[in-house]
Input
Amino acid sequence: MSGKKNKKILLIGGRSKAKSMAVSLLGQGYQVTAINDDYEDCLKLAEIHGLKVVFGNGTKPYILEEAGAEDFDIAIALTSKDADNLVACQLCKKKYSIKKTVSLVGDPNKTEFFYKMGVDSVVCAVSAVTGIIQQQAFIDELTNIIPFGQGLVQIVEVRVPEDSPAAGKKLWELTLPDEGIVGCILRGDTTVIPKGNTRILAGDTLVLITGNGQELNMIHALTGR
Amino acid sequence: MKFFGSNKKDNYTIIIGCGRVGANLANTLSDEGENVLIMDESNESFRRLASNYGGLSVVGDGTAFDQLRDAQIDRATAVIAVTNDDNTNIMVAQIAREMFNVQKVIARLHDPECEIVYRELGIDTICPAVLSAKEIDKFLGVLPVKEALP
Output
């Protein structure tokens, strides 16, 4: 908590997102300020204990100055308009030298563009949600997928079922996508770091590292599903 | 897709936002015989166009990549962002410059304070308030105010 105490986070726009994020961040010991251009939303936000609220348009420099923008460590843009989020982040970055900017983006096609324009971290709610739903819907043997590096790399935990074509085979006998490796085998209480001639057994839990959206191919090759 | 030989440099202007400025400009360019495409979110806005307007009008979102591609932005010699929202204009201009390498990009901004965001990208900007102030100053016969924009 001590390190976080001095970290200041600026939330720009967003209704329920700003509210739940503010509560969560304050709970973790950060100093949080929210800017919102809807007066009713501001009143709601102001009910949160410890949250500083500024009423105004967070894409305007004079409002950001009123909020003391140059003192913040992280700025998070949560408005529903992509253009507003982009300009807010660019202002925070270029004019107020905020080190890390995070932006929500509605249009999945704009994620790359936002990165190109200097936003440090871009979160697309649409693709995140569809991704999660797809994982849940199509891969029942799957325990967990953790995305890394903006989702370019995935760490996947998967169990090998009895009827898997991979069960009983050595690793080198399997045809796996180039963009993936079996990083670790969890077998009962033991952990095996696999080599080419390590045999995969039914009931093993495998930790896979995959890139380039190959996780589904990888899972298919190892579980047959 | 290209209608003309790749060497032939025809002027093709895309205008985003069919308000008073956008429609006026579209009419003028069309009268001068240039290729013009004007895009707006609302079909109603195109009523501002003159009856003899000879360009294209497209209902669409000027910040959507696929719609810009459909409008053949890769062929555009100029993109002009004149919607009623400054941030949208900034984003349109940045998309045209950074994603589609359009040579001439102009954005109309009511509030020039966000300049730092687009200055280094070489986007030209027009600020009505600054222009008005200059004109009024001219009428008053005093020396022009110190320029607020470069």
In short: The interface with chain B takes residues 59-62, 81-84, 86-87, 90-91, 94-95, 107, 109-110, 113, 116-117 of chain A (CB under 8 Å). The domain at 138-223 of chain A is CATH 3.30.70.1450 (Alpha-Beta Plaits).
